[in-house]
Amino acid sequence: MADGELTKRKVVVLGWDGAVFELAVRWAREGRLPALAGMLERGAYGRMKSTIPPVSAPAWASFVTGNNPGRHGIYYFKEHISGTYESRLVCGADRRGKPLWRMLNEQGRRAGIVNLVMTYPPEPLDGFIVSGMDTPGEDSAYTYPPELKEELLRRLGEYIIEPTLEEEARTYRYDALWDKIERHMESQIAATRYLLEHGEWDVFAVNFRATDSVQHHFWKFMEPAHPQYDPAGAGRYGDRILRVYQRLDEFVAEVRRRLSPEDVLIVMSDHGFGPTSDKVIYLNNWLAEQGWLRFRRQPAAPQSAAGLGRLVWRTAWERLRQMVPQRLKTALERLAPRWYQRIRYPAAFFFIDWEHTLAYADEYQESIWINLAGREPQGTVQPGAEYEKLRRQILERLHEWKDPLTGEAVIEYAGLREEIYHGTELERAPDIILIPRQDPYYRVRPSHTSPGPVSIYTMSRQELLREYLPNGTHRLYGMLFVEGPGIAAGRALEGAEIIDMAPTILHLAGCAVPRGLDGRVLAELFEALPTVRYFDAIESGETPAGGDLYNEEERAILEERLRGLGYLD
Q1: From 148, 213, 256, 368, which residue has the greatest number of CB atoms within 10 Å?
Q2: What is the mean pLDDT of residues 20-49?
Q3: pLDDT over 60 (residue 309)
Q4: DSSP letter assigned to residue 82
Q5: Same structural domain, 438 and 502
Q6: Cα torsion at 129, 565, 74, 271 (round to 10°)?
Q7: Nearest CA to 21 among 501, 356, 416, 494?
Q8: Are residues 17 and 115 in the same domain?
Q9: Which domain holds residue 481?
Q10: Does 51 lie in the same domain as 130?
Q11: What's the CATH number where 403 sits?
């Protein structure tokens, strides 16, 4: 196909957040997902590597920029605040670099973007944006152009950005939980259908979050080997993950019918998924075992009076932090700075003796920070040789860490931040990043929830049932299916990464690709080696808005939403 013809193509990307390649292929070949089965025959397909860690926030930021987190600056849903032991929520305003829609606009292509993570606040563009789960709520200005919000509500009756699932999940009300997930999915399908038909676009990308939500909460009903497996519940809920895949597969078929034979259809996920297990690791307890962290008082067994007291205190402390209004925090900062610092601490850090601590983990993400002088308020490690030596020592011992019951390695991968990322935003990354063992999955939990001073623990079935713990979680590899003219039919892909999507979409839309992106055009998608046009671009570190945009109420809403998916404790 000549370049002139290539420019006529439209490209549609249907994201199934967290969808599993192996499940999708198996169900497609069993005839349960006929639209994907057709894409297996007519298009190219394979696993696609996510970011490290495989979390939606950095993954979708990598999708839209074509760059690694070291350049776009999003590593998780929260980031460390330099000069403190605190963290803050991030959003699209914190994403550095030029996103896909601006790259398209600069070459005369219109973009329609719906529900991608890290797109709030929506920025002006030629086309439209409906921002994703980093949007605080339905009252927010979540569309560009602004009037699109009212148009959607007028036409559809409602639009659900992201449901809050924590209450239903914690109380095991699975019918109510399913109703919320299904209603959210149908709301986004209706909005996508409307925007595909009535919006003006050349490239359209949408992310359906239902696959992620249902797998977090319903995996245990699908897998008899799961430690939380419920035979009675399996009969009622064991097909819910499949039902989400099937509903989205029906929509894939609908979209394919709407497109012309010259257009390209992509179905993908930002990361994969798999079951959790009964294995738990406590990074701060482990750091204390190694002599790199000191607690002001040691964790007590939960059944003891001290342990019960600590549990009550932890719960009350978190609620207090959430309820204290900002004006009172501001007054405390001025009148009692020591108490102000304490009320801002997460409960996980409340028991740490910072003056005698060399390294710590925030334990909501799988990483370790050095208590670095000049960065942390009570830093004990000097930059330079001391910092580097300590990081190497920690890395070495992480690789040596074994489960005393099984002899298995606890950590599947661990690396220094500069070994994983590169770019101008590297300083925003944790000092050490790790991936726990995946099979069985070793879950990282806050050390203040541990049953005493242990670094690794096997939870009983009763403990798993008593505590709110999502029974499915993320894996490193997602999926990619591509169908369209010039795409190799039936070709199995290897080596695709999520950073490759922006340059590949640009090429498919007939655009030139900026030189210097971390991602590449996936040449193996095509029947014949493609002729890719490139141009020199000046890298910009600008952000759409910049800064922390959330007020206290919005932060509380977003944190509750993230807790409902197990991303925050």
Answers
A1: 213
A2: 98
A3: no
A4: T
A5: no
A6: -80
A7: 494
A8: yes
A9: 3-274+474-534+546-563
A10: yes
A11: 3.30.1360
CA 125, CA 110: separation in Å to the nearest integer?
8
Instruction: Judge if 443 and 503 occupy the same domain.
Output: no
- Tokens for 98, please give them: 């030029």
Cβ contact 368:292 at 8 Å: no
Secondary element (H or E) of residue 387: helix 385-400
Q: Within this chain, do residues 330 and 392 fall inside the same structural domain, yes or no?
A: no
The pLDDT assigned to 462 comes to: 86
Q: How far apart are CA 53 and CA 31, in angstroms?
A: 33
pLDDT at 5 > cutoff 60:
no
Q: Note whether residue 242 is domain-resident.
A: yes
User: Would you say residue 447 lies in a domain?
Assistant: yes
Specify the number of domains making up the chain. 3
CA–CA separation, 142 and 148 (whole Å): 9
Q: What is the rounded distance in angstroms from the CA atom of residue 564 to the CA atom of residue 470?
A: 9
End of a domain among 409, 429, 458?
458
Strands 78-80 and 44-49, how do they pair?
unpaired
Contact 272, 476 (CB under 8 A): yes
Verify that 172 and 295 share a domain, yes or no.
no
Q: How far is CA 212 from CA 149, 185, 562, 565, in A?
A: 25, 11, 12, 9
In this structure, the strands spanning 359-360 and 367-370 are antiparallel
Q: Determine the average pLDDT of the residues in 340-351.
A: 59
Q: DSSP secondary-structure letter at 488?
A: P
For the chain, the average pLDDT equals 90
Q: Write the pLDDT tens digit of every residue in 84-112.
A: 888 899 999 999 999 999 999 999 999 99
CB 519 within 8 A of CB 508: no
Indicate whether 32 and 176 sit together in one domain. Answer: yes
Question: Are 335 and 360 found together in one domain?
Answer: no
Q: Which two tokens stand for residue 445?
A: 């939990």
Contact criterion met (CB below 8 Å) for 418 and 392: no
Among 310, 343, 376, identify where a domain stops.
343
- C-alpha pair distances (Å), 36 with each of 29, 78, 157, 350, 527: 9, 35, 30, 49, 20
pLDDT tens-place string over residues 233-287:
999 999 999 999 999 999 999 999 999 999 999 999 999 999 999 999 999 999 9
Give the whole-angstrom CA distance, residue 54 versus residue 270: 8
Confidence of residue 3 (pLDDT cuts 50, 70, 90): very low
- Please report the DSSP string for 135-177 in residue order: S--TTS--EESTHHHHHHHHHHS---S----HHHHHTT-HHHH
Residue-wise pLDDT tens digits, 362-406: 888 899 999 999 999 999 999 999 999 999 999 999 999 999 999
Residues with Cβ < 8 Å from 96, sequence gap 6 or more?
65, 71, 72, 73, 424, 425, 541, 542, 543
Residue 78 lies in a domain: yes
Q: What is the CATH number of the domain that holds 28?
A: 3.40.720.10
Q: Is residue 541 part of a domain?
A: no
